[in-house]
Every structure is written in C-alpha cells, then in structure tokens.
Amino acid sequence: MPAGWEGPLGHRPSFVLDTSLFTNPEVASQFGDDTDEAVTNFLALAKQTSAAFYMPTSVYEELRLIKGLEALAPEFESVVQIRSPRKYTLQVPGALLYELMEELRHRIDHGLRVAEEHTKLAGQTGSSDTSIGLDQLISRLRERYRETLRRGILDSKEDVDVLLLALELDAFLVSADKGMCRWADKIGIKLFNAKHFRYLLRSLIKTQEPFPQVAQ
C-alpha cells in the first residue's frame, strides 16, 4: 500500500463516491458492462475491504432515479453510508466564493457572446444555399451554451454536497467529473482517479493493512 495515505477514522481509509463512478461509461466499465453489473461488482469488492464508503443523500437519490437501482438498494445501503454533509457547521474559505463568483461572471459574459453569435447566424438562415437549418442552429447553440456555462464548474447542489461531505470527513473524493475535481483540489480535498478505483479496491483486499497516518 502506498505510503502517505490516511483515513479520518483512525487508520481506516474513507471515500466519498460520486454518481460518475457508475454512470460514466468509461469509468463504470472497469466494474461491468452495464450499471447493475458495475454496482454489483463494486459492492462485492468493497465488502472485502476495511474502507468506509460514503455518498451524499442527494447524490444517492439522483443515482437511484437515473439508473433505477431499487433491487440493489438494500445491499448498496449496507455497504455505502448515505448521509448529507453538515452544511450549517462546515466552514468554507471565503476566497473560494470570490473565485467562484468571478468565474461565473466570466462564463455568463462568454455565454452572451455565444448567444449573440448564433443570433446573427439565425438572421442568415435561408439566405444562402450554405446556410444551416434553424433546428440545427438551435441545437448547436444549446450545446455551445451548455459547454460554456456548465463544463468544468460546480453546477448543482449534488456537486456541492459531494465536495462538502469529502471536506467534512477528510475523505478521498472519487469522481470522474473534472469540474468537481478541479474545485475540490482548490480547497485541499484528497482525490483519487475514478478510472483506477477497481485497482485500488483489489489492492486493499490483498493487503488488508491499515493506512499509515501522515505526520502533521
């Protein structure tokens, strides 16, 4: 086991899981060919380790709604602890809020420019043989606007819940969401690459050794 790992529960490693571990095809494929198989195989490995696994309530409800995991819910909840972060007692650096607001303002300005660009294109629709259709233009506008405003940033309360819970527990965040990982890194949350999580679980099973504490 790599030296330098630590967990908040004595020497027990803890991980906060994001839905992307099971919904991102590139990541989930390490556990199985579909969501049910991926979750089942993850649970089989997780139960053989001494690690603690967490998922915020809002994220768990989102996962159940998207993937319909009712049949696996009892086993999942027996392995992964479902709880919300203590939002009213956690302290978040003020500088992070300033940086978030600054980035939001920049993205909104960029979004307006994208909208202006496509509005001009809409005025040209049908005026030449090379013009694109209105439906195609609207689809392209939505994609560009979504990418400009949402990619690489915290854009939901579920994202915030994952970050706050990892911060509160001093746990490793396991996510394939680049925006979430970027903001988690800004406030010093420990990260583990979701693509390699199966490898880590198998390593934990093989060693079953406590993680050494890092000197403070």
How is this structure best summarized?
Keywords: Endonuclease, Hydrolase, Nuclease, tRNA processing. With 216 residues, the protein is α/β, with parallel strands linked by helices.
Explain how this protein is built:
The chain is built from ten helices and five strands. The chain has 216 residues and is of the alpha/beta class. It has two domains: 14-88 and 157-207, Rossmann fold (3-Layer(aba) Sandwich), CATH 3.40.50.1010; 94-150. The chain has a five-stranded parallel β-sheet. α6 (94-124) packs antiparallel against α7 (134-150). The two termini are 20 Å apart. The model is unreliable at 1-10 (pLDDT under 50). RNA-free RNase P that catalyzes the removal of the 5'-leader sequence from pre-tRNA to produce the mature 5'-terminus. Keywords: Endonuclease, Hydrolase, Nuclease, tRNA processing. Belongs to the HARP family. It comes from Candidatus Methylacidithermus pantelleriae.
CATH architecture of the largest domain: 3-Layer(aba) Sandwich
Distance between the termini: 20 Å
What oligomeric state best describes the polypeptide chains here? single chain
Low-confidence stretches: 1-10
Largest sheet: 5 strands, parallel
- CATH fold node name of the largest domain: Rossmann fold
Strand content: 5-15%
